[in-house]
Amino acid sequence: MKKLIEFLLSKIKYIILIYVLIQLVLIFATEITYNSDCQYYYQLAQDCIEQGEFYPAQNHLYEDYIFAPLYINVILVLLKIYNSHITISLFNFLIILVQILVLYKISLKVFSENVAALSVLLYIFYLNNLGFVLLNYTELLFVFLVSLSIYFFLLNKNYAFLLSGIFLGSSIAVRPTGWVLLAAFIILQMYVSYKNRKPATSYLYIYTGVLIFILCFGGWTYSHFGKFEFTSTTGPVNLLIGANDDATGGFNGTVHQKGKIGYIENPENLTYTKKSDFYLEEAVKWIQENPIKWISLVPLKMLHAFAWDDITVSPLLGYHNLNFGRAVRNIFDQNSSLVNAEKVSGTTSVFYFFIQAIHHLYYYFLLVAIVLGIYQLIKNKNFNDGTRLILLYSLFSIFVIMIIFGTPRFKYPMFILLLPLAANYLTAKLKISEKRIEQS
């Protein structure tokens, strides 16, 4: 493995070039299809374009939730330029390229040039990243904004702290779990202040940046929607999905069916705020009545988040209504590989499971390397503010999963940010020789 990694590091520029070409081929040679959340985000943007409004528009007052307002408006603007799925894919393509650069810069600040280069390789060979280019999920933009926030923090300049806060605020406007990074900053500030025996006042620039973005974006939303909204309102329903009699630890949409805890009679008559209040009330009530059962669901939530990892691989392979977990269940439930999912030939099924097997072996390899990388840091007490921040963010992200429910998508942001720890462990364990990368 050592020689293989050293060889790949020596050819990293060519690998990146090939990766770029593969993405472009996928974008222009693949029939892009959306479903589930991808399609819903796309439709929200199209609705706003037709009405000549930004998101949320007035008719979204009676929707179930407000979804990722910053992301939907970015997509909306892109579709106004050229109304095609390809536009979104090209946007994803650009994000992935810059994400590679930012991940490299973060790893370089936290560890070394060799670890930074290996982090890029680990990112490139992680198949979910390639699949994201064809989809319309919030994860890519969210991780990118969180990464930018961490990178500017590591520059350790007051102006950079302000920018770090602005990007943190923008990440919250894409996914509410951006608050997790803010919590990590607060805990880190408390630690630094205690360690240095004086207040770490520079962190106030970060909080100022967050406040500036929230006030500006929320005020802009208020100007055209009449309500001060700056992030998704899906928190209460996510809590309810993980706190009901039918909870499995993963996503279970039956909670909204008639007779279930989340059922609403005539939902079209209630605003999204009233629905959120209802979901929150029912979730809190259930948790209070079933605290032991709620806690007992935690291992299942972790299992749903980490045991398998098909976020984008099935769509990448052409199966838009399938994921690896469902495919495996179909085998055991129906004694047929993809029954009731998509009609495919036996040969195609073999190819599907072959690619998924390779992907999951690589995923488990990364997961083990990340765990060992964390253990290595703890054992050697080789922490710095960068590693502390990433670990705090990851810890709080896991805590959020424990509260709501588990799905592979929820762990993706922390998984990407933890790749440098895996790279650092592999570099030290295998004694990878230094391969300097020419600066362009």
Number of strands: 0
Strand residues, percent: under 5%
Largest sheet: none
Order of helices and strands: HHHHHHHHHHHHHHHHHHHHH
Mean pLDDT: 92
* Head-to-tail CA distance between termini: 28 Å
Determine the number of helices (DSSP H or I, runs of at least 4 residues).
21
Shape call: globular
Structural class: mainly alpha
Cα-atom Rg, whole angstroms?
A: 22 Å
Measured as a percent range, the helix fraction is 55-70%
Spans of at least 5 consecutive residues with low confidence: 436-440
Number of domains: 1
Offer a quick outline of the entry.
By secondary structure, the chain is mostly helical. It contains 21 helices and no strands.
Give your account of this protein's structure.
- The model is unreliable at 436-440 (pLDDT under 50).
- The protein has helices spanning 2-10, 12-29, 36-51, 69-81, 85-110, 113-124, 127-131, 139-154, 158-172, 178-196, 203-225, 235-241, 272-289, 291-296, 298-306, 313-316, 324-334, 346-380, 385-403, 408-417, 419-429.
- Helix content is 69%, strand content 0%.
- The protein has one domain (2-429).
Keywords:
440 residues, mainly alpha, disordered C terminus
Describe the protein's topology:
Layout: H1 2-10, H2 12-29, H3 36-51, H4 69-81, H5 85-110, H6 113-124, H7 127-131, H8 139-154, H9 158-172, H10 178-196, H11 203-225, H12 235-241, H13 272-289, H14 291-296, H15 298-306, H16 313-316, H17 324-334, H18 346-380, H19 385-403, H20 408-417, H21 419-429
